[in-house]
């Protein structure tokens, strides 16, 4: 008979392999984008089995007979192979493009059930008594898989609609699922009697074969990356001037010309000579992406007066940032735009492409108020250079895990060596920041330095989400933002989950109102602000008044300011306060601050402290520097009858100082308090 050491020795390497695979499975689970809840049920089993095996090895003397049994060894070997199958399954569903390929060539339901049964058999034979699933457990797991697959197929159907039906993309509706396809079925074998609901739910999965076939075709259509691939060349003579003169449009870095190509309006954007050779493959790939209506269509390359240009479709309204700076965008349009951008990102992911630079400035808007993703980053080998040269452009939207790869200001070197690992989770975070930017119609952290943004975001701080409205639609929209910008990348949802949530908002709140548009006043508020800056107060007043009358809250604030100060019109504090309150209740931080201080009656030195603190706090929550300072000063000194809270006061004073508020910094310096946390 073999000794204890001799009996245990063959199992040592297998146990190590189990622990290694368990760790790898848990790590792989963090990157899973599709059917994550289903994968979670497998992770729970794997973790439980790993714990039991540790106990088994600690108490090995009790199980020597098992360790001396050759069948026990073979079962242990089968168990490691089962773990390898789980890891491979996670890899197959980790990204959308892999998932699409997987479901077009295999039955995920059959594979899932096969793995669970093998896992259970091995666990039972090895006497791993923790979390061995009963048939009832299996049925519950299959229900979870069913719900995951319903969500995925709904998502894929919507993405397909977005790709194949450009004419009616703003009127996409989810019709009742048709029962047609016999290929996508759960395995009903061994389902316990009485589990009628599961069988009923299985039938609802029918009718999706065409969905993934379309997307898989587009996936396979993506060009390979051979050096011989080139973008289409367009002769300069094929680019005609438009019938009506259009001045050059100033892009983020270059001037863009409007031309006509094959009777289609196009934009000609200069491309630097030094990146022209490496751009060929990238632009050829971009040409294939025109299948999606939410990605800017690339026509080819040309030369205009010795300048190399890329030729893309013309976007009448410019970038989404241009639009929100010039016009008030109603919530119907915001939801529609957000959903369509998400659809474009989902399509990119389905063909294994990441955008790398998601923000409103990289979304173009056509005459139908339809968003088009543009300004893709070059392939991954150029991404490190993008961070090197574009840090000041991307930090406001960047995921915190990327900050360690940004340059330090002191020595112009990367904080970490190597190429930044930009993942779909980084993309999700940036999309969340874009949603915030679209909601508030301003750049996130606009008054903060790059260093300060990195410090705050790295510590888990985010822009305020107080829109001052109690609408269900807006609350749900804000919840989507919160999900997207989770500090832990593994907690951020997949792109399909975000799309389904936005689609749900669109169907419930927007679709019933046809003709969703952007409100375009004759003179937008931005023009009024420019007139105010130039001293043309009559023009500014007329614009503020007109826009305020149609509900623009920024215009209401400025109309109130004119009443308060007496610019162009007579002073009227009462009217000013009414306007400030409306704008304040709608979430305008400047109005919240103004209204708070209007509550102070300087003549008889009275102050409504409760109301004052309410609106001052709202403004502070919206990161208004002056409000942050005043709230901090009140808590730090214990003013207005409020109990002194030095720690709370220092927090707000630091927040104000980080936003360059001079008096806040002065107070901290005076009390020998560092601005750093």
UniProtKB/TrEMBL annotation:
One of its GO terms (molecular function) is ATP binding. GO terms for biological process: cell surface receptor signaling pathway. SUPFAM superfamilies: HCP-like, Protein kinase-like (PK-like). Gene3D superfamilies: Adaptor protein Cbl, N-terminal domain, Tetratricopeptide repeat domain, Transferase(Phosphotransferase) domain 1. Residues 239-506 form the Protein kinase domain. Pfam families: MLKL_N, PK_Tyr_Ser-Thr, Sel1. InterPro entries: Adaptor_Cbl_N_dom_sf, Kinase-like_dom_sf, MLKL-like_MCAfunc, MLKL_N, Prot_kinase_dom, Sel1-like, Ser-Thr/Tyr_kinase_cat_dom, Ser_Thr_protein_kinase. This is Mkk2p. SMART domains: SEL1 (SM00671). GO terms for cellular component: cytoplasm.
């Amino acid at each position: 008979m073999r000794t204890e050491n001799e009996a245990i020795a063959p199992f040592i390497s297998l146990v190590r392999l189990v622990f290694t695979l368990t760790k790898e499975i848990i790590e792989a689970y963090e990157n899973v984008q599709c059917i994550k809840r289903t994968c979670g049920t497998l992770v729970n089993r794997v973790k439980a089995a790993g714990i039991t095996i540790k106990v088994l090895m600690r108490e090995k003397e009790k199980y020597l007979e098992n360790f001396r049994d050759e069948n026990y060894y073979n079962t242990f070997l089968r168990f490691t192979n089962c773990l390898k199958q789980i890891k491979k399954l996670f890899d197959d569903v980790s990204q959308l493009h892999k998932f699409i390929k997987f479901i077009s060539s295999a039955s995920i339901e059959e594979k899932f059930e096969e793995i669970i049964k093998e896992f259970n058999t091995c666990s039972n034979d090895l006497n791993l008594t923790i979390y061995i699933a009963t048939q009832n457990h299996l049925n519950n797991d299959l229900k979870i898989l069913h719900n995951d697959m319903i969500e995925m197929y709904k998502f894929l159907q919507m993405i397909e609609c977005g790709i194949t039906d450009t004419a009616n993309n703003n009127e996409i509706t989810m019709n009742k699922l048709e029962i047609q396809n016999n290929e996508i079925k759960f395995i009903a074998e061994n389902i316990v009697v009485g589990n009628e609901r599961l069988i009923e739910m299985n039938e609802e999965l029918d009718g999706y074969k065409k969905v993934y076939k379309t997307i898989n075709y587009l996936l396979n259509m993506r060009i390979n990356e051979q050096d011989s691939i080139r973008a289409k060349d367009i002769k300069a003579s094929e680019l005609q001037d438009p019938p009506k003169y259009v001045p050059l449009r100033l892009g983020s870095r270059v001037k863009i010309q409007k031309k006509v190509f094959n009777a289609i309006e196009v934009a000609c954007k200069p491309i630097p000579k030094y990146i022209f050779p490496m751009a060929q493959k990238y632009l050829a790939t971009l040409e294939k992406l025109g299948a999606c209506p939410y990605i800017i269509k690339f026509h080819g390359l040309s030369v205009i007066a010795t300048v190399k240009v890329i030729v893309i479709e013309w976007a009448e309204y410019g970038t989404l940032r241009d639009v929100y700076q010039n016009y008030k965008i109603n919530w119907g349009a915001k939801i529609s735009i957000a959903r369509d951008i998400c659809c474009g990102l989902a399509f990119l992911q389905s063909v294994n492409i990441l955008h790398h630079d998601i923000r409103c400035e990289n979304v173009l808007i056509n005459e139908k108020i339809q968003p088009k993703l543009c300004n893709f980053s070059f392939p991954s080998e150029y991404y490190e250079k993008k961070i090197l040269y574009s840090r000041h452009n991307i930090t406001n939207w960047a995921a915190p895990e990327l900050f360690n790869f940004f340059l330090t200001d002191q020595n112009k070197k990367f904080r970490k060596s190597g190429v930044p690992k930009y993942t779909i989770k980084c993309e999700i975070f940036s999309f969340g920041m874009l949603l915030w930017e679209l909601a508030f119609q301003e750049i996130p952290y606009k008054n903060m330095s790059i260093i300060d943004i990195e410090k705050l975001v790295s510590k888990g701080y985010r822009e305020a989400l107080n829109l001052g409205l109690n609408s269900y639609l807006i609350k749900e929209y804000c919840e989507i933002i919160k999900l997207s910008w989770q500090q832990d990348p593994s907690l951020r949802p997949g792109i399909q989950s975000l799309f389904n949530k936005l689609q749900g908002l669109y169907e419930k709140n927007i679709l019933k109102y046809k003709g969703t548009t952007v409100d375009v006043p004759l003179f937008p508020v931005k023009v009024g602000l420019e007139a105010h800056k130039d001293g043309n107060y009559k023009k500014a007043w007329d614009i503020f008044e007109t826009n305020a009358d149609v509900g623009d809250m920024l215009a209401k604030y400025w109309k109130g300011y004119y009443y308060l100060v007496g610019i162009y019109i007579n002073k009227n504090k009462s009217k000013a306060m009414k306007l400030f309150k409306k704008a304040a209740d709608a979430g305008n931080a400047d109005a919240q601050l103004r209204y708070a201080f209007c509550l102070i009656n300087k003549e008889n030195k009275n102050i409504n402290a409760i109301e004052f603190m309410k609106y001052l706090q709202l403004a502070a929550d919206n990161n208004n520097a002056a409000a942050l300072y005043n709230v901090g000063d009140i808590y730090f000194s214990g003013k207005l009858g409020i109990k002194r809270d030095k720690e709370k006061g220092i927090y707000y004073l630091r927040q104000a100082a980080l936003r360059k508020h001079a008096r806040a910094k002065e107070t901290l310096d005076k009390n020998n308090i560092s601005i750093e946390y």
